Amino acid sequence: MISRRLIAAATAAVVLGLSGQALAQANYPAKTITVVVPFAAGGPTDALARILSAKMSEKLGQQIIVDNVGGAGGTIGVAKAARAAPDGYTLAFTHMGTLAVNIALYKSLPYDSVKDFEPIGLGGTNPMVLVAKKGLPVKDFKEFAAYVKANEAKVQYGMAGIGAASHLGGLMLNSMMKVNVLEIPYRGTAPALNDLVAGQFDYMVDQAVNVLAQIKGGNIMALGVSTKKRLDVLPDVPTIDEAGLPGYEVEIWNGFFAPKGTPKAIIDKLNAVLTETLADPAISKRLAELAVVVPGKAESTPEALAATLKASIDKWVPAVRAAGVKPE
Ligand code: MLT
Fold first, then answer.
1. 234 and 134 assigned to the same domain
2. Which atom in ligand 1 lies closest to the alpha carbon of residue 190?
């Protein structure tokens, strides 16, 4: 059935002499928008995507659904979004692991992080936490580092695939501790966290948003945070930098991207609702409780996200190569 909104837009288009493409843009969004999250449901990328999408959907007056397409460190989902029609109805919500770190870790990526996407805006930056299974016989970071060194052959760490944020956090940690331990890949850190709580592997470096509840519930141990300063939500947990690995610092930004060629009017509309969403007091309070650093207006423009992506590629591609990881 043709909606009244569409008839009104079409009438306006005739009066104003708009082309079909201009009409589609003026009427956007006219149907459900899909946001591809390249990791499992219930994890950190998914959590942030859902909090932001729900509010953006209210503001746009259209449904936004999240499509979890996990696997291969997020590359399958990101490639799916890159190949979608550039009409504003398929977007990606992803992070710097899939778009920057992956460049150093795959011989051939199924997308070009810069050429295949239009940045929409930054969604938030997440600190990470080194978490260990409850039964690990250590009580702080120093004991952890000594234990891993002494048990290198049997210790295992979990991550969400090659190039995931949890892979970056773990590989920088292991490289700085000078240990080589077995990595256990998952489709996202939600299923990895379930296995850590069950004691199936020894440790993981994951975004705070995913692990805070299990730390507070006493189901896993928090041994250090990845930022230069301690987190307000975990004041008693030292930074990894202060606890024994000076210089260790990893933070993960997440953002919305559209396939290359998506009209600028649509990017600007999505950016405007994202910016309004981030400024909403209930949303920023919820994100702060999850230790997410909410970007200000100037940091969440499409141009600022393009610059953030470029800066991450410039920083992490050489750092990961220097850590000696061979591309797959
Ligand atoms: C990651 O490690 O990249 C993320 O935590 C994956 C996820 O969102 O599950």
1. yes
2. 9
Nearest CA to ligand 1 atom 5: 189
Average pLDDT by stretches of 10, the chain with 328 residues:
54 60 82 97 97 98 97 96 97 97 94 98 98 97 98 96 95 95 96 98 97 98 97 97 97 98 97 97 95 94 98 95 84
- Whether the CB of 165 sits within 6 Å of ligand 1: yes
C-beta of 40 in contact with ligand 1 (< 6 A):
yes
CA 156 – CA 41 distance, rounded (Å): 23
pTM across the whole model: 0.91
Dihedral of the CA atoms 281, 255, 327, 74 (nearest 10)? 90
Q: Which domain holds residue 35?
A: 29-125+252-322
How many domains does the chain contain in total?
Answer: 2
Phi-psi region of 308 (alpha: psi -120 to 50; beta: other; left: phi over 0): alpha
- Residue pair 40/68 in contact by the 8 Å Cβ criterion: yes
Q: Regarding beta strands 182-185 and 156-159, do their DSSP bridges make them parallel or antiparallel, or are they unpaired?
A: parallel
How far is 101 from 120, CA to CA, in rounded Å? Answer: 20
Q: Which helix (H) or strand (E) holds 51?
A: helix 44-60
